[in-house]
Write a structure and sequence with these properties.
By secondary structure, the chain is of the alpha+beta class. It is about 25% helix and about 20% strand. α1 crosses α4 (about 165-175) and α7 (about 265-270) crosses α10.
Amino acid sequence: MKIEQWNLKLLLLALTVVLRPGFASPLHPNNARDAVSPTCKRTKVAVLLRNTILPTREQSSIGCAILTLPGLTDAVNSYSDYSSIETFDENGAVNYTDLLDTYDNAYSSLEQDAGYILSENLQDRSYRAGLSLSGWKPGKNMQAQATEWWQFDWEYGQSPEESSEEFAIVNYNTTFYQYSDANNYVFDSRGFNAFIKGEASTFLKPSDPRLLLNTIVTKIFHNNTGVTIHYKDGCIEADYAICTFSLGVLQNDIVQFSPELPMWKQEGIETFSMATYTKIFLQFPPDKVFWNTSTQFFLYADPIERGYYPVFQSLDGPGFLPGSGILFVTVVSDQSYAAENQDDATTKAQVLAVLRDMYGAKNVPEPTAFMYPRWSTTPWAFGSYSNWPPGTSLEMHQNLRANVGRLWFAGEHTHAEYYGFLHGAWFEGQKVGGTIAGCVKGNKTVCVEEMDYPVLHGDTPEGQYDAANGWFVTSFQTVGFDD
């Protein structure tokens, strides 16, 4: 399921703090608790969502499915039919859909191989290596490269070289085989955040004084007795905090932690990847629409650059927004970074050049509207969703996930199976929220700290760095340095 469908790969940025009555002392780097800060707010439960502080209910609907959330049950959507596709290269329309079947055959082999790696505790490899071993080698065939992008990058936001074979398959199977392979594109004019507003409306009143908008966290003091969160105009004291800042925010040191997070935690944060997924929207005059509006997807194979404005989607068609003249194209990773760091005019010119290669220069007019987000440069996001690098263990991911004393972590990036998906963030929030509720209530059966792994060893013991394994000299050289 691609990012635009029901299981939206969603970036969540939030911080939840839970307070018990009577906790009054501010936390400082020296862990002093002998002074009371009159400026810190005290509340039982609070959430910092993006630039918003939002209190939450004490009890959550743990068994509630994502699609039953207020605001999602009536979200405007339509089925995405991936068989509704036309293919192009720089010379215009050309049919290479047979490559989709060739890729699928290789995928079937790779999928079985990934299961073998997991069940036999074998060394993980890159998804690229898995594809190659399964017989898929696109080489310089740009139509095959476009096919691969359609099948892989479009889902994970990064290339096969940057992705784990084992955990990419885990991620796909646990979502699509466990739930459904049906994909629905949500194009509700209220925005996808309607479900957040819907859920909040069940316990927040209009203009609720507990809701603090445009409140940016700057510093978090934490120790084994509590947490204090500082923002521009004040602070909040808590017995526990749940930090669900995006992985991108954590990696960019936007918030200062005091004391610094332990090295095992920092390694977990820095080891995983933050993908960027950029949709670029164009609107054309309805009477000058030049594409087949009965087709949903248009795949383009650039002759030089893999992933260069490769997949266009039409919203001017049955079940979507007929007569709208809206078309959009998706880029990820390096192409996202390029588009997001240049002006709109440059990006628009590049997209139009591709469309004119596809449909002919005379057939593609200037758009009447043009826009796209810049997720990789947005301070509360710094990307779109997380990805699992090759050769990275479940234990390393657990270090990304684990709590540090009273400071807990949740979000799509902390779910080992559903990373990158909305339901991953939902289930992790439920899990950590339930644990913290147990801690607040003194239930030691529920209030159990997460596992962490301060030391993670490689696969090769020191004694095997020898000539028998092609290791002839020590790597601990000092040539060029003074004794």
